[in-house]
Amino acid sequence: MYIKTKSLFISAQEINAGMLFVSMGMMEILKRNIHRVAFFRPIIFKKNIKDKDTEFMLEHYKLDMKYEDTYP
């Protein structure tokens, strides 16, 4: 049985659990196998200060999306 997944949510149970490294590993796999990939962070601390991890993901993986589209 094949299930088509449209999204993947990665979560940790504690702060500083290395989620950036896990996200990078998953992004490497996804970018190799899927044409369109996006990054979304459901919780950010301040809207007026850009999140460094989010900026890194956008730049490193050359994602075609605006920073403002990465959070609610």
What would your notes on this structure say?
With 72 residues, the protein is mostly helical. It is 33% helix and 0% strand. The chain has one domain (19-70).
Summarize the structure.
The protein is mainly α and 72 residues long. It has one domain. The chain has 2 helices and no strands.
- Distance, first to last CA: 34 Å
Helix content estimate: 25-40%
Backbone structural class: mainly alpha
| SSE string, helices as H and strands as E | HH
Number of domains: 1
Number of strands: 0
Sheet having the most strands: none
Secondary structure tally, helices: 2
Report Rg.
Answer: 13 Å
Strand content: under 5%
Task: Report the principal-axis shape.
Answer: globular
Main attributes of the structure:
single chain; 72 residues
List the helices and strands and how they pair.
Blueprint: H1 19-33, H2 52-60
